[in-house]
Amino acid sequence: MRRLPWTSLIIIGAMIFMAVFAPVLTPHSPTDQTLSDKLKPPFWEEGGSTKYLLGTDIFGRDVLTRMFYGARVSLIVTALALSVGGGVGLLIGIVSGYVGGRLDSFLMRLVDAAFAFPAILFALLLAVTMGQGMKTLVIAISILLWAGFARVVRGEVLALKERDFVALAKVHGCSPARIMATHILPNVLNTFMVLVTLNIGVVIVAEASLSFLGAGIPPPTPSWGLMVAEGRGKITSAWWLSLIPGIAITMVVLAFNLFGDWLRDRLDPKLRQL
Amino acid sequence: MRRYIVQRLLQGVFLVLIVTTIVFFLGRLTGNPADMVLPEDASEEDRQEMIETLGLDGPVHTQFFIFMGNALQGDLGLSIRYRQPAAEVFFSRLPNTMKIVPATMIVALVLAIPLGILSALRRGSVTDRFSGAIAVLGIATPNFWLGILLIYLFSVQLGWLPSARMGGFTHYILPTITLGTFLVAGFMRLIRSSMLEILDSEFVKLARIKGLSEFKVIWKHCLRNALIPVLSLWGVFMGGLVTGAIVTETVFAWPGVGRLTYEAVIFRDFPLLQAVIIMDAILILFINLLVDILYAYVDPRIRYT
Amino acid sequence: MTHRGPFFGWLFSLLLTVFIWVPLPSAADQEGTLVIALDTLGGQTMDPILEGRAPHAHYQAPVFDALVGFNFEKGGIGPGVAERWELADDGQSWTFYLQKGLKWHNGDSLTAHDVKFSLERTMTKESLASRASALRRNVKKIEVIDDHTVQIFTNGVQVHFPASMSRAVFQEGQLMPKKYIEKVGVKEFRKNPVGSGPWKFVRSVQGDRIEYEAVDHPHWRGKPNFKKLVILLVPEESTRVAMVRTGEAAIASISPESLQEVEVAKLKVVSVPSTMQAVYQFWGAYRSEFAKSPIADKRVREALSLAIDRQSIIDHVMYGQASWPMPFATFGYSSDIDTARWQAWGKKALRYDPARAKQLLSEAGYPNGFDLNFANTALPGTPYMTQIGVAVADFWNKIGVKVKIKHYEWGAFRLLYRGDQKKLAGHTSMFRTAGRPVAAARYYGGFHSKGGHHLFGSKTDCPQRCQDFDNLHLSLVAEQDDAKRAQKTDKMLEMVADSWMAVPIIEGKGYWAVNPKKVGHFKPIPGRHEFGDVFERMPLPGQKAWP
User: What ipTM was estimated for this complex?
Assistant: First the structure.
């Protein structure tokens, strides 16, 4: 058994802390501009000051402050997308696996379709239809996620269905809905939790890619992905704009993945996932 | 088996129909290509005339039936932007994508298989940890950013490699890495975890007791089984590749299908968008079917009913 | 305007011709390849009638000449294939006099028949030229007088007609070879286009590049110094900059955001002056339903302008590479206007005065601000508009206005202002006016009740100001007397400036990163962001040093 991944927990904790206490942690606003202070480097570089510890962006907004608030936005997007996408996937997976038959094969073909249809294009189409925004982003990423959840959960349910306690419940005259809710659901929750943890990284990276393609969180609201996308053209002249949020994304995704691995080893060692 | 294939093909046709319908109507909701052609101060009159020129007048459902009728005869319409048959535009770009995707897959497999096996055999060793870290880094770095960093480092700073565009062998290195990292990461983790499971299983223990050489044990018994999950999650990888291709082709100015699709969305080139999505869907469904058949071949436990 | 009389036009073109035909003393033989990386190649088609948008001036212009050309120094129009043109006394037709001895790339002579053919082809229903439908309405018939004279009869007086035949404005004046197209057919023409420009088409690889070869004889637009020209499509900006740094490309289009990066890398920046004006405007504010809304109050609209520190936007958002704006849709090269007067107006009226802004808000009854819906968008080719929009919204917030900003991708935004503008009425939004010499056309689109934006009133609901504008515009575009037309133009500008309904923010430029080791120093044409008419005058590296 692995040891608890402390480093990961610390990183994750730090991100959550930043997100929750953003307004307390910084005197600056994430969106107010001070154009005359634009593109100041971090304090340790020449020309930097302790007023802006990690420097400022093209509008003179404090990068550290935007990192704090960006953590908040990224976490909210992640939480919503995973609840919606993961939730739908969980539901479809359970129903499909338990009910079986035609419904099952119909739903699984839908899953195939979801895999065959590039979700990112859906996201783009949505962004140009509904306009960029949190809602669009969450729906788009949910579409990216649900099929994966549904497929894995269904697999679990297929195995569970044959177990004695389900047969017993049937004998006792429980309705299918009741069996799914009280007998199947609790038993797939472990798998679900592992999937959720492992997919957090997927969501954060997807959010960044969508920002790159112009379908992410609209400015001036900060998100880490948007910050990387906006700063990508300034690697020589203002490296801190993309490198800081970029490294933050990498570290957080790493942390969630290692934590997810640990959780999997503990809760559901047989689960195979990316 | 034959019945299964026929059934899957029929389902495929059905799926393509669904996908096409969704794209058709969603596309029409997002705006009109006439507006992308006309200057910003065009009058309503000019706009109406341009819509007629582009053949986009008439109610949407009528357009839909016309489109479906033509599509069934193999005519996917004219690309609005390029004024060429949409299918022609797609097929002129497909070979470019087909140069980079298989290259990426092969590189990914060549790297991932030995690394995955090694890290499973030497669980907890430096190799395991190192490749684990690489794997997660591959998943954890948005690939547009990775691509830009690679260009900056290897083209601008070191001057070793060309920064973009198609060309000789050196032009493939950076795009392949950019597109491939997440594949290497994904493959490696899958192979590692299934190898671990198999190495723990009864039949491997038996094989070892029988005194087979370690190489034979791994090669004959493990690898084949370890590849099964890679195949079973193929669909997920394909989805990732399409996304990756859009981003990678944009960053590296690679004139492939991914970039074409993105531009079709932005330009509201409906006929092209529909053609690309239909072709993409057919291609991916077909590949997935092949993989499933292969899957059945590799893993005899699967039965088709 | 250039129809002052044949003599001056003739003299001017004679001087120009002499100037260009006298070989440059240092001119080396044509050598090397000029590589340019662009963010878009549009439809990437070599048929002029199939490219509706600005990229035509990048990639079709090298091959095709236009009937009317540029004023290379000042911007705006100048002689082209037609060396001069004149308006008939009754105002109902324009006569164009072509240069003699021009040849198509296949050796055929370029004549007035080609002009007639080209215009008629541009006016067909098949044409995607953005002003094809306007031409169909405005042009009655085209008559060939002789091989070098063509007369175009218009519906009513069209004083601005020649401008629309120049690439300084649109693409409709591009000339195509009649004989060749009739011989080989349209399909073959699209594959192997023949033009009359200083560059011959070689090949086009869709989604990747177009290649050209210089003509080897002197051309009236200039004899190219480079032997070959390659235009690459590289959508990602950081990649384009990288390519210029490594020398894989000599020139790349950039946005102001990359200016600093380019300077740090010791590359040169070329900025084309007056290519656009970023503005914001109030949609549907004339409607009775908004009579009580703050944006219907002129004082509020003026206050919003006074709240914007334009210099700060120029210095910081645009990295110093932008100019103070003139009135709506006017530039240094605009025809019919008193540049000095209106520049002075801009300096004063568009000043930064937050105290006065707050005072005006109080007078209007909004001392604590109000809620303002602001739609932020960027038009194709000028992505930096979004950043200007974000900066403007922040200035408004600073005087207490609560700005609700929403971002729209251009195609989605375009949907909002068609028809009855239901979703946009009562909103403020970012917008743009492109750098073109004739303001009247842009004012029609913006303020005429039949225009696309109709900010003063619609066909069915046209209040006093809207009716006044319609009448003024109608008499302006038919005014044959230069002085009177200038007067009326002034009046039109005043009317719009006083309304504060569409307000200039900054005058933008076209930005390019240049590797000085790959191309010598060159000057762009003011107002024309694209380089299709500049390539032939770009010197070899070392032929002309960069300052």
Answer: 0.84
